Amino acid sequence: MKNLKALILLFSVSVLSFSCFEDNDDVPIATSEINDFVWKGMNLFYLYKDNVPDLANDRFSSNSQYANYLEGFNSPESLFESLIYQRLTIDQFSWITPDYFANEDLLNGRGLTNGMQYTFISRSTTDPTRYGIILYVLPDSDADDKGLKRGDIFYAVNGTELYYNSLADNNYSLLNDTNYSIDLGTYNTNGTSDTADDSVTPLGTTVTLTKEELTENPIHVSKVLNVGGKSIGYLMYNGFNGSSAELNNVFATFKSAGVTDLVVDLRYNPGGFTSKAILLTSLITGQFTGEVLNIDQFNSELQAEFEASNPEFLEDRFIDNENGLSLNSLNLSKVYFLTTRWSASASEFTINSLTPYIDVVQIGSNTRGKYQGSWTLYDSPNFLKEGANPNHTYALQPLIFKYSNIQGNTDFIDGLPPDTMLNETRLNLGILGDENEPLLAEAISQITSSGKQISNKSENIEAHIPFEILQSANGKLIDDREIPLDIIQPIFSK
What we know:
Helix content is 24%, strand content 28%.
């Protein structure tokens, strides 16, 4: 049928009939009304559209066939998942949310939290018992007020021991409550290198925690270390969001202190906005203003439109100011990054982008392996928030592009490998920002050429299981430029 895509995209959902659900305001909403938005958004923007037959422009021969298709899904979530390309391997990162206000908070580092940032460890790969370990604590949070600190271990929540058999069989949800208590303990190797006989000894201390709305400052630690005659800047950056001016001020401090070497700690940074990644790369350097950082690739239909109408939109470039904010760039020719499997998306964007331009030294473990980015799509005629359907608060966060650096490096599904492998384990946490903390100490050793070695480095890697990477730590790379309507709109009429 000629122009069927245009008919579908303009199709009034009022002719659809359907199951309903209650939205956040208890107003009945037709499921197919939201399903219509889900299919449209994915059909237009999804990076892997060409690989999903149900997203083909000629998928439906009539509007009634399209309506019947939408009615076949009893929730927007089920439709969305059916359109994802290879969920377990290629696209582990697209998501749909029923509450775009909460989604916006998530992307900006706001949320309900007690401030305890944690992960889990086990005695062995076959033991379902899990112990929580605190990685860091947010300043001025309830966990901070209660005296919890990095390295503290807890073995039970509300008196119940933690276990994990699979994604579908675990009790990690105990930590989802607004209020809960944790039982603290100490981890014992019992004098052997065999983790199977490890145990946790209760301390007899129970801490009750309460979550509250907090905005995490992504600049967790920044300081200047004077070691071996070197002035070394250290920045622990936990999210690509927050204030550009504050990040710029950190680099002003580095600059005034005569910093000649820089360690950027991204070990717990799952990503954020591309604008902040471009800002950070430009603050580290400064000598490449205007040169191309990355090249973006969209699905074939969008890619053709961009290449024909606005090829500049496909390129990210180094900057020397952001909205009039002059940058305190360091003009470095070498930088050190500390990474783990939590380092994802915008963190990888930063590392991968800089690699062709300066000497990039990566210490830690492989990054997450997320080389794709997204836009937030709202249910409005142009997918922007303005004019969004008032009947619901669903939004999509699908992968819409992937990036490559100027050397063409992309598709690093296994992550970016470190130059120096050094896993974080229970035995080697140390104090963040302290020059003796193992990952930072390794960077300082390389900077000062001191030859100082991390004690038992290989033993830590081989004899002790690294921390689990939570399923929720998938990573974020959000293109916060406005959707180019002048390019997108013509596709509707094709």
